[in-house]
Amino acid sequence: MPELIEIETYRRQAEPVVGRTIAAVPTLDPLGLRGVHPEEIRAELIGLTVTAARRIGKLLLLDTDGPTIGLRFGMTGRLIVDDSAEIDRLEYGANRDDRAWDRTVVEFDRGSLRVNDPRRLGGVELDPDLARLGADAASITDSALASALGDSAATLKSRLLDQRRVAGLGNLLVDETLWRAGFDPRRAAGGLTAAEVTRLAATIVDTVADLTQRGGSHTGDLQPARERGASCPRDGAPLDRRTVGGRTTYLCPAHQR
DNA sequence: ATTGTGGCCTGCCCGC
DNA sequence: TGCGGGCAGGCCACAA
After folding, report:
1. Between A176 and which of A112, A114, A115, A220 could a Cys-Cys bridge form, CB atoms 3.0 to 4.6 Å apart?
2. Which residue among the candidates A58, A72, A78, A103 is catalytic per the annotation?
Protein backbone atom coordinates (compact mmCIF):
# COMPACT_ATOMS: atom_id res chain seq x y z
CA MET A 1 0.00 0.00 0.00
CA PRO A 2 0.70 3.45 0.06
CA GLU A 3 2.33 4.15 3.40
CA LEU A 4 1.94 7.17 5.68
CA ILE A 5 3.54 9.53 3.15
CA GLU A 6 1.10 8.67 0.38
CA ILE A 7 -1.90 8.78 2.70
CA GLU A 8 -0.88 12.27 3.79
CA THR A 9 -0.92 13.24 0.13
CA TYR A 10 -4.40 11.75 -0.15
CA ARG A 11 -5.47 13.74 2.90
CA ARG A 12 -4.40 17.02 1.32
CA GLN A 13 -6.15 15.97 -1.86
CA ALA A 14 -9.33 15.32 0.11
CA GLU A 15 -9.38 18.73 1.76
CA PRO A 16 -11.46 20.35 -0.98
CA VAL A 17 -14.37 18.04 -0.17
CA VAL A 18 -14.71 19.59 3.28
CA GLY A 19 -18.02 21.42 3.29
CA ARG A 20 -19.55 19.25 0.62
CA THR A 21 -22.61 17.04 1.10
CA ILE A 22 -22.81 13.41 -0.02
CA ALA A 23 -25.46 13.05 -2.69
CA ALA A 24 -24.90 9.47 -3.81
CA VAL A 25 -22.63 6.47 -3.27
CA PRO A 26 -22.83 4.55 -6.54
CA THR A 27 -20.01 2.12 -5.74
CA LEU A 28 -19.14 0.28 -2.53
CA ASP A 29 -17.14 -2.93 -2.90
CA PRO A 30 -18.61 -5.41 -0.38
CA LEU A 31 -15.18 -6.97 -0.01
CA GLY A 32 -13.85 -3.91 1.80
CA LEU A 33 -16.74 -3.49 4.22
CA ARG A 34 -15.85 -6.10 6.83
CA GLY A 35 -19.14 -7.86 6.57
CA VAL A 36 -21.32 -4.77 6.77
CA HIS A 37 -23.92 -4.71 4.02
CA PRO A 38 -23.28 -2.02 1.37
CA GLU A 39 -26.85 -0.74 1.62
CA GLU A 40 -26.38 -0.16 5.31
CA ILE A 41 -23.35 2.06 4.81
CA ARG A 42 -24.87 3.79 1.80
CA ALA A 43 -27.95 4.74 3.78
CA GLU A 44 -25.81 6.19 6.54
CA LEU A 45 -23.59 8.18 4.19
CA ILE A 46 -26.13 9.95 2.03
CA GLY A 47 -26.85 13.45 3.26
CA LEU A 48 -23.73 13.76 5.41
CA THR A 49 -21.63 16.90 5.17
CA VAL A 50 -17.85 16.52 5.43
CA THR A 51 -16.32 18.69 8.15
CA ALA A 52 -12.64 17.71 8.13
CA ALA A 53 -10.03 15.50 6.47
CA ARG A 54 -7.61 13.87 8.90
CA ARG A 55 -5.00 11.15 8.81
CA ILE A 56 -3.71 8.78 11.46
CA GLY A 57 -1.08 6.37 10.26
CA LYS A 58 -2.33 4.90 7.00
CA LEU A 59 -5.96 5.62 7.80
CA LEU A 60 -7.67 8.55 6.07
CA LEU A 61 -10.53 10.00 8.07
CA LEU A 62 -13.35 12.14 6.75
CA ASP A 63 -15.23 13.66 9.65
CA THR A 64 -18.83 14.57 9.00
CA ASP A 65 -21.83 15.92 10.85
CA GLY A 66 -22.58 12.23 11.45
CA PRO A 67 -20.19 9.27 11.65
CA THR A 68 -16.53 9.53 10.71
CA ILE A 69 -15.66 7.81 7.44
CA GLY A 70 -12.46 5.75 7.55
CA LEU A 71 -10.74 4.89 4.28
CA ARG A 72 -8.00 2.27 3.96
CA PHE A 73 -6.05 1.86 0.77
CA GLY A 74 -4.54 -1.59 1.04
CA MET A 75 -1.45 -2.04 -1.07
CA THR A 76 -2.68 -0.65 -4.34
CA GLY A 77 -5.36 1.91 -3.50
CA ARG A 78 -5.27 5.40 -4.99
CA LEU A 79 -7.47 8.39 -4.21
CA ILE A 80 -9.02 10.40 -7.00
CA VAL A 81 -10.81 13.62 -6.08
CA ASP A 82 -12.79 15.46 -8.73
CA ASP A 83 -11.34 13.14 -11.35
CA SER A 84 -7.72 14.02 -10.74
CA ALA A 85 -5.13 11.93 -8.94
CA GLU A 86 -2.06 13.49 -7.42
CA ILE A 87 -0.25 10.17 -7.28
CA ASP A 88 -0.68 8.69 -10.70
CA ARG A 89 1.60 5.75 -10.21
CA LEU A 90 2.21 3.48 -7.23
CA GLU A 91 5.25 1.28 -6.79
CA TYR A 92 3.99 -2.27 -7.41
CA GLY A 93 0.54 -0.95 -8.31
CA ALA A 94 -1.08 -0.88 -11.69
CA ASN A 95 -0.19 2.11 -13.82
CA ARG A 96 -3.60 2.63 -15.32
CA ASP A 97 -6.76 4.18 -14.00
CA ASP A 98 -9.36 1.60 -14.92
CA ARG A 99 -12.83 2.51 -13.68
CA ALA A 100 -13.50 -1.19 -13.18
CA TRP A 101 -11.14 -0.97 -10.20
CA ASP A 102 -13.17 1.73 -8.48
CA ARG A 103 -14.03 0.23 -5.08
CA THR A 104 -15.59 3.27 -3.45
CA VAL A 105 -17.23 6.13 -5.30
CA VAL A 106 -18.80 9.06 -3.46
CA GLU A 107 -20.64 11.79 -5.34
CA PHE A 108 -21.10 15.10 -3.59
CA ASP A 109 -23.43 17.97 -4.26
CA ARG A 110 -20.49 19.06 -6.38
CA GLY A 111 -17.59 16.84 -7.43
CA SER A 112 -16.64 13.33 -6.42
CA LEU A 113 -14.20 11.16 -4.55
CA ARG A 114 -13.21 7.65 -5.47
CA VAL A 115 -10.84 4.96 -4.32
CA ASN A 116 -9.34 2.98 -7.18
CA ASP A 117 -7.82 -0.25 -5.89
CA PRO A 118 -7.01 -3.08 -8.31
CA ARG A 119 -6.16 -5.57 -5.61
CA ARG A 120 -9.18 -4.88 -3.41
CA LEU A 121 -7.28 -4.95 -0.14
CA GLY A 122 -8.50 -1.56 1.06
CA GLY A 123 -11.87 -0.72 2.51
CA VAL A 124 -14.34 1.62 4.15
CA GLU A 125 -15.37 1.70 7.78
CA LEU A 126 -17.65 4.01 9.74
CA ASP A 127 -16.38 5.31 13.07
CA PRO A 128 -13.20 3.21 13.03
CA ASP A 129 -11.73 2.41 16.43
CA LEU A 130 -8.84 4.87 16.67
CA ALA A 131 -7.66 3.38 19.94
CA ARG A 132 -6.32 0.52 17.88
CA LEU A 133 -3.67 2.76 16.33
CA GLY A 134 -0.33 3.60 17.88
CA ALA A 135 1.56 6.90 17.77
CA ASP A 136 1.87 8.37 14.30
CA ALA A 137 5.34 7.67 12.92
CA ALA A 138 5.75 11.11 11.35
CA SER A 139 6.11 12.74 14.75
CA ILE A 140 6.92 9.87 17.10
CA THR A 141 8.86 10.77 20.24
CA ASP A 142 11.54 8.81 22.09
CA SER A 143 9.18 7.88 24.88
CA ALA A 144 6.35 6.91 22.53
CA LEU A 145 8.71 4.66 20.61
CA ALA A 146 10.08 3.18 23.82
CA SER A 147 6.61 2.19 24.96
CA ALA A 148 5.75 0.91 21.47
CA LEU A 149 8.74 -1.40 21.55
CA GLY A 150 8.25 -2.28 25.21
CA ASP A 151 10.10 -5.35 26.35
CA SER A 152 8.83 -7.33 23.37
CA ALA A 153 10.63 -10.43 22.21
CA ALA A 154 9.24 -9.92 18.71
CA THR A 155 11.55 -8.65 16.01
CA LEU A 156 12.17 -4.93 15.71
CA LYS A 157 10.72 -4.96 12.23
CA SER A 158 7.47 -6.71 13.09
CA ARG A 159 6.91 -4.33 15.97
CA LEU A 160 7.46 -1.28 13.76
CA LEU A 161 5.02 -2.69 11.20
CA ASP A 162 2.38 -3.30 13.88
CA GLN A 163 -0.09 -0.44 13.43
CA ARG A 164 -1.33 -0.78 17.01
CA ARG A 165 2.18 0.13 18.18
CA VAL A 166 3.41 2.60 15.59
CA ALA A 167 1.00 3.89 12.98
CA GLY A 168 1.99 4.65 9.42
CA LEU A 169 5.08 2.64 8.60
CA GLY A 170 4.97 -0.02 5.90
CA ASN A 171 7.52 -2.44 4.56
CA LEU A 172 9.56 0.02 2.54
CA LEU A 173 9.75 2.73 5.19
CA VAL A 174 10.74 0.25 7.88
CA ASP A 175 13.52 -1.21 5.76
CA GLU A 176 14.78 2.24 4.82
CA THR A 177 14.69 3.48 8.41
CA LEU A 178 16.48 0.46 9.89
CA TRP A 179 19.04 0.61 7.12
CA ARG A 180 19.70 4.29 7.79
CA ALA A 181 19.87 3.84 11.54
CA GLY A 182 22.03 0.73 11.27
CA PHE A 183 19.78 -1.74 13.10
CA ASP A 184 19.32 -5.38 12.22
CA PRO A 185 15.54 -5.86 11.69
CA ARG A 186 15.75 -9.26 13.40
CA ARG A 187 16.84 -7.82 16.74
CA ALA A 188 14.41 -8.17 19.60
CA ALA A 189 12.30 -5.02 19.80
CA GLY A 190 12.73 -4.82 23.54
CA GLY A 191 16.48 -5.24 23.36
CA LEU A 192 17.40 -1.70 22.35
CA THR A 193 19.19 0.57 24.80
CA ALA A 194 17.66 3.95 25.62
CA ALA A 195 20.25 5.62 23.41
CA GLU A 196 19.36 3.31 20.54
CA VAL A 197 15.65 4.03 20.92
CA THR A 198 16.43 7.73 20.76
CA ARG A 199 18.49 7.24 17.62
CA LEU A 200 15.77 5.14 16.00
CA ALA A 201 13.01 7.62 16.83
CA ALA A 202 15.02 10.44 15.29
CA THR A 203 15.74 8.36 12.21
CA ILE A 204 12.06 7.50 11.76
CA VAL A 205 11.02 11.16 11.92
CA ASP A 206 13.88 12.30 9.68
CA THR A 207 13.29 9.55 7.13
CA VAL A 208 9.57 10.25 6.85
CA ALA A 209 10.30 13.98 6.40
CA ASP A 210 13.06 13.31 3.91
CA LEU A 211 11.09 10.92 1.73
CA THR A 212 8.04 13.16 1.93
CA GLN A 213 10.15 15.93 0.44
CA ARG A 214 11.48 13.59 -2.23
CA GLY A 215 7.98 12.50 -3.14
CA GLY A 216 7.13 9.12 -1.67
CA SER A 217 7.89 5.98 0.30
CA HIS A 218 9.67 4.54 -2.70
CA THR A 219 12.33 7.30 -2.92
CA GLY A 220 14.62 5.97 -0.20
CA ASP A 221 18.35 5.43 -0.61
CA LEU A 222 17.93 1.68 -0.12
CA GLN A 223 15.12 1.42 -2.65
CA PRO A 224 17.26 1.05 -5.82
CA ALA A 225 18.95 -1.93 -4.13
CA ARG A 226 15.71 -3.78 -3.36
CA GLU A 227 16.48 -6.52 -5.86
CA ARG A 228 18.26 -9.82 -5.77
CA GLY A 229 22.02 -9.62 -5.89
CA ALA A 230 22.26 -5.91 -5.10
CA SER A 231 24.91 -4.28 -2.92
CA CYS A 232 24.53 -1.88 -0.02
CA PRO A 233 24.45 1.70 -1.35
CA ARG A 234 26.34 2.80 1.73
CA ASP A 235 29.23 0.37 2.02
CA GLY A 236 29.02 -1.89 -0.99
CA ALA A 237 28.53 -5.12 0.98
CA PRO A 238 26.21 -7.70 -0.63
CA LEU A 239 22.70 -7.11 0.66
CA ASP A 240 20.81 -9.84 2.43
CA ARG A 241 17.28 -10.66 1.24
CA ARG A 242 15.16 -12.63 3.68
CA THR A 243 11.75 -12.76 5.30
CA VAL A 244 11.42 -10.84 8.57
CA GLY A 245 8.11 -10.12 10.22
CA GLY A 246 6.48 -12.04 7.40
CA ARG A 247 7.66 -9.51 4.83
CA THR A 248 10.39 -9.46 2.22
CA THR A 249 13.29 -7.64 3.84
CA TYR A 250 16.52 -6.21 2.51
CA LEU A 251 19.32 -5.51 4.96
CA CYS A 252 23.04 -4.89 4.99
CA PRO A 253 24.85 -7.48 7.11
CA ALA A 254 27.88 -5.20 7.30
CA HIS A 255 26.40 -2.12 8.94
CA GLN A 256 23.02 -3.18 10.36
CA ARG A 257 23.64 -4.61 13.80
C1' DA B 1 -1.33 -12.03 25.90
C1' DT B 2 2.04 -12.39 22.58
C1' DT B 3 3.90 -13.91 18.45
C1' DG B 4 4.05 -16.07 13.99
C1' DT B 5 1.66 -17.85 9.84
C1' DG B 6 -1.48 -18.12 6.15
C1' DG B 7 -4.70 -16.09 3.27
C1' DC B 8 -7.28 -12.58 1.06
C1' DC B 9 -7.24 -10.35 -3.94
C1' DT B 10 -5.52 -9.10 -8.66
C1' DG B 11 -2.09 -7.16 -11.90
C1' DC B 12 2.48 -7.27 -13.59
C1' DC B 13 6.92 -9.05 -14.82
C1' DC B 14 10.08 -12.54 -15.94
C1' DG B 15 11.55 -16.70 -18.09
C1' DC B 16 10.42 -20.51 -20.96
C1' DT C 1 2.82 -14.47 -28.52
C1' DG C 2 1.18 -17.11 -24.72
C1' DC C 3 1.46 -19.16 -20.30
C1' DG C 4 2.80 -20.23 -15.61
C1' DG C 5 5.06 -18.94 -11.51
C1' DG C 6 6.45 -15.67 -8.40
C1' DC C 7 6.04 -11.30 -6.67
C1' DA C 8 3.78 -7.17 -4.44
C1' DG C 9 4.09 -0.58 -0.07
C1' DG C 10 -1.52 -4.12 4.04
C1' DC C 11 -4.25 -6.21 7.19
C1' DC C 12 -6.95 -9.75 9.50
C1' DA C 13 -8.29 -14.25 11.50
C1' DC C 14 -6.38 -17.93 13.53
C1' DA C 15 -3.22 -21.13 15.96
C1' DA C 16 0.41 -22.25 19.21
Report:
1. A220
2. A58
